[in-house]
Design a protein that fits this description.
Layout: E1 59-64, E2 67-74, E3 83-91, E4 95-100, E5 116-124, E6 129-137, E7 141-150, E8 159-164, E9 172-181, E10 185-196, H1 210-215, E11 217-220, E12 231-234, E13 240-245, H2 250-255, E14 259-264, E15 269-274, E16 283-286, E17 292-295, E18 298-300, E19 311-312, E20 316-320, E21 325-328, E22 342-343, E23 349-351, E24 366-369, E25 374-375, E26 394-396, E27 402-404, E28 420-423, E29 428-431, E30 445-448, E31 456-460, E32 475-479, E33 488-489, E34 497-499, E35 504-506, E36 517-520, E37 526-529, E38 532-534, E39 537-541, E40 543-547, E41 552-555, E42 568-571, E43 577-580, E44 594-597, E45 609-612, E46 616-618, E47 622-627, E48 633-637, E49 641-642, E50 652-655, E51 657-660, E52 663-670, E53 681-688, E54 698-703, E55 728-729, H3 770-779, E56 785-786, E57 803-804, H4 807-811
Parallel strand pairs: 46-54
Antiparallel strand pairs: 1-4, 2-3, 3-10, 4-9, 5-8, 5-10, 6-7, 6-9, 11-44, 12-13, 12-49, 13-14, 14-15, 16-17, 17-20, 18-19, 20-21, 22-23, 23-24, 24-25, 26-27, 27-28, 28-29, 29-55, 30-31, 31-32, 32-33, 34-35, 34-39, 36-37, 37-40, 38-39, 40-41, 42-43, 43-44, 45-47, 47-52, 48-50, 48-53, 51-52, ...
Length: 813
């Protein structure tokens, strides 16, 4: 069973604090060193001038939690006569820190978009000390920003620590910082410095066409995907596992023809892989060792008369990228067709939702133990007996709790507000407010925005296959560092064109898209692409880049291929984005594969990581790389494991940089000490220059001791999302299942085969007559549709000849 952190109770009057991690940063801009004469922005940097409350002028006591502490102005100084000593003699939780006073008189003025070199001299008798930043937002006031660097333990020798801040966020006018002590022992500090970083060199010239440099470009690859893949996993050898199972084909299911393929981006080839079971609409996640855990899948298709829906089996497999083979594990406790799959900070995997073997909804949480390499029995897994729906997006927060974003598949959302925080330790669910149109977020996308340290989630688009309205343009953003987090409205998704069956036309009104894909890019932005206006119909052609810093969309080049239901989009190690699939309601499949080259690939020569000392990383490490020229930042991006607009494990983790002043191409990376921020596994390491141009990724393997938690790893842990005020529920009554209608997929099974989806609800603009419905079906290439059984609920077989939308049916109206 996974070990979890015990959270410190909230205390009245305590600073709003957040879970942070030793050695975190964002956007560290490395340029030419500042001249020695650069102005120090710190007032009283050596503590020489006395102030009030026993503290030096322009310095204040800060901290929180249950601990015994002291603040001492000591004569044991690096220079001058005074230094500041902060000591903890007992600690259950929290920290103590001497901060620059958060006032207009003392806190340094900063400029949004700029970066600052910070430095200090220190001695420490504890390994639990880190450089911590706060920022003053002109609207929201003072708030925690990030931890930049964990200080090595130096009990006897004065040591200099330097680090560069992220770019100052918009709306920030001042910052405050100091050293947090969050373990027993002391940190003595002196001679603080803060200098603005010099401007970067001018932008390089465009190396492509003007359009490529502004919008990027798409290429449709010459070789088609040989399988009807709806699951895409980027493997740590750079290849891509594409899982089809039966590919939503009842004929292939009956024949026992289940497929996967491994695509190699290096040479564009596909290797079809024997697949032991129907992994159509399974769940999948990459384990700590790089193998892929594939859970559940399709035990059976709906019955022809529509009385039985899809069924999920309990089977589970691991795929080994080295041998390209599947191996069976023990069974799950329940069937989970369309399950969630979230890796936790100790390498365990938790799964919720989906359909059981009898096609009812699963209320069982299943837990894969990394230590035992098996699914644990139900009596060892906390249960709330909640039904989370299908493919619920469950995102791991920095303190080990799970955030359900509200993105899901098929029909209405869960009851209540539509989003929630699940605390496994307490076994409680707390509703989170603010998600707009919560029952029209079917096949929306949700991502933890870059950098993961900011703990902001973006949810975009969606619809509802039951009522089948026009999909929406909504985006909602939540900051999980707030004490009482709530979604707020983001900018609408830009509109493109929509093809109703007679060629693309411009979207109008509030038309948006469902089946949308969202991909984290190495420049810290998010690509959103693909989608459709209605249930498995009316593809939307629109692609944009979302900038988390400005919270704006920039429309870019558009994928020429339709990418709706059962499509995927994911980042390749070379910085391009690959898209596959599309499975309209007529049962056809798009085997064409597209690759997008973002604008950053047309901004001059790419930086290169010329050496990587070690690809095996542990939490809290300092790792050295060399690059061929100065870089702006480095980050870890977890490789994709995506299906149905959903990849809750996708994350972008910034790494703090320390640079040798005599050799800017030698860079030390401070690895986060928090496994809940960056769960164990293989990551793509990108080095990015000041213009957002990334290197080709190197693969690194991040891991720690068994059952490692944030507390075990010595992470600097603050409470955040500490006081959500939504309705709290604990475990409900033990039950077997949630009733789910057989038509949960939005398809009326009275017509055609199981892989054909005649909608139970047609788009609003389609009249409720046989003629109007049949015209729409013809425009969307449904072809001949046999009627299954005697029922004709949509009145498409007026002459009762067993064929829907025949000539006689249309003439009769």
């Amino acid at each position: 069973m996974r070990a979890h952190r015990t959270r410190t109770p909230v205390r009245a009057g305590r600073r709003t604090a957040l879970l942070a991690v030793g050695a975190l940063t964002s956007g560290l801009l490395l340029t030419a060193p500042q001249p020695a004469s650069a102005a120090n922005l710190i007032t009283n940097p050596g503590f020489e001038t006395a102030g009030a409350d026993g503290m030096p002028h322009c310095w204040e006591k800060s901290g929180w939690g249950d601990n015994d502490f002291s603040f001492t102005t000591t004569s044991d100084a690096h220079s001058g006569d005074k230094a500041m000593k902060v000591e903890l003699t007992r600690r259950t939780g929290g920290d103590r820190k001497a901060l620059i006073t958060e006032s207009a008189e003392c806190a340094p003025v900063v400029t949004p978009g700029k970066q600052y070199d910070l430095g200090l001299w220190y001695r420490t008798t504890t390994p639990d000390a880190s450089l911590t930043l706060f920022r003053h937002d002109e609207t929201a006031g003072w708030q925690y920003w990030t931890d930049l660097k964990t200080l090595d333990m130096r009990p006897a020798v004065w040591t200099e620590a330097t680090v560069r801040t992220p770019q100052v966020p918009a709306g920030t006018d001042r910052i405050s910082w100091g050293v947090s002590v969050y373990g027993t022992g002391a940190a003595t500090t002196d001679d603080y410095t803060m200098e603005q970083v010099a401007e970067p060199v001018p932008d390089p010239g465009c190396t492509g066409t003007a359009r490529e440099c502004a919008d990027g470009t798409w290429e449709v690859l010459p070789t088609q995907n040989p399988v009807r893949s709806m699951h895409s996993v980027v493997l740590h050898n750079g290849k891509v596992l594409l899982i089809a199972g039966s590919g939503n084909s009842e004929e292939l299911f009956e024949a026992g023809t289940f497929t996967s393929a491994v695509y190699d981006p290096e040479d564009g080839t596909y290797e079809v892989v024997p697949t032991p079971d129907d992994m159509f609409c399974a769940g999948h996640v990459q384990l700590q060792d790089g193998r892929v855990l594939v859970m559940s899948g399709n035990k059976g298709y709906p019955s022809a008369d529509g009385t039985i829906g899809y069924q999920g089996y309990k089977d589970s497999y691991v795929f080994d990228p080295e041998t390209e083979t599947y191996t069976r594990t023990n069974d799950m406790n329940d069937g989970h067709w369309y399950p969630s799959a979230t890796i936790l900070g100790n390498g365990d995997v938790i799964s919720f939702g989906g359909l059981r073997e009898d096609s009812t909804g699963s209320v069982t949480a299943d837990l894969w133990s990394d230590a035992e390499q098996r699914w644990l029995p139900m009596n060892r897994v906390n249960q709330t007996w909640s039904y989370w729906g299908l493919y619920p997006s469950m995102i791991l927060m920095q303190d080990g709790r799970l955030f359900y974003s509200g993105s899901h598949v098929f029909g209405n959302n869960i009851p209540g507000t539509g989003s929630a925080i699940y605390d496994y330790d307490a076994n409680t669910v707390t509703e989170v407010p603010g998600l707009r149109n919560k029952d029209e977020r079917d096949q929306s996308a949700s991502v933890l925005l870059p950098p993961a340290q900011d703990q902001k989630v973006l949810t975009l688009g969606g619809g509802n296959i039951d009522s089948n309205p026009d999909a929406n343009r909504l985006t909602d953003i939540i900051d999980l560092k707030e004490a009482n987090p709530s979604y707020v409205a983001g900018p609408p998704i830009p509109q493109g064109t929509v093809d109703h069956g007679d060629g693309p036309v411009q979207q109008t009104g509030d038309q948006g898209k469902m089946y949308v894909s969202a991909v984290l890019l190495p420049d810290g932005k998010v690509l959103e692409t693909g989608g459709a206006l209605h249930n498995r119909a009316d593809p939307v052609f629109e692609t944009s880049v979302f900038d988390p810093a400005s919270e704006t969309f920039d429309p870019v080049a558009v994928d020429p291929q339709a990418r709706g239901y059962h499509s995927s989009a994911f980042l390749l190690p070379d910085g391009r984005v690959m898209t596959t699939g599309d499975n309209p309601g007529n049962g056809s499949w798009n085997h064409n594969v597209s690759v997008y080259s973002p604008p950053y690939l047309f901004k001059g020569e790419r930086p290169a990581i010329t050496s990587l000392i070690d690809s095996e990383w542990t939490y809290g490490d300092t790792q050295r790389i060399t690059v061929d020229r100065p870089i702006a930042k480095a980050e870890l991006i977890r490789p994709a494991a995506v299906t149905h607009s959903s990849d809750p494990n996708q994350r972008f983790v910034d790494l703090p940089l320390s640079v040798d002043g005599n050799d800017e191409n030698t860079v030390d990376l401070n690895v986060t000490s928090n496994p809940d921020l960056a769960p164990p596994g293989w990551y793509m390491l990108f080095a990015v220059d000041a213009h957002g141009v990334p290197s080709v990724a190197e693969w690194v393997h991040l891991r720690g001791p068994a059952a490692l938690t944030a507390q075990d790893a010595g992470a600097h842990v603050h409470d955040f999302a500490e006081a959500p005020q939504g309705k709290v529920t604990g475990p409900g009554r033990k039950r077997a299942a949630e009733p789910v209608p057989p038509a949960v997929s939005g398809c009326d099974r009275h017509y055609g085969s199981a892989n054909v989806c005649v909608p139970t609800a047609f788009p609003a603009e389609v009249g409720a007559t046989a003629a109007a419905r049949c015209t729409w079906l013809k425009q969307n290439d449904y072809g001949t549709l046999e009627v299954n059984g005697k029922d004709d609920p949509l009145r498409l077989d007026k002459n009762r000849d067993g064929v829907a939308c025949g000539k006689g049916d249309v003439r009769r109206g």
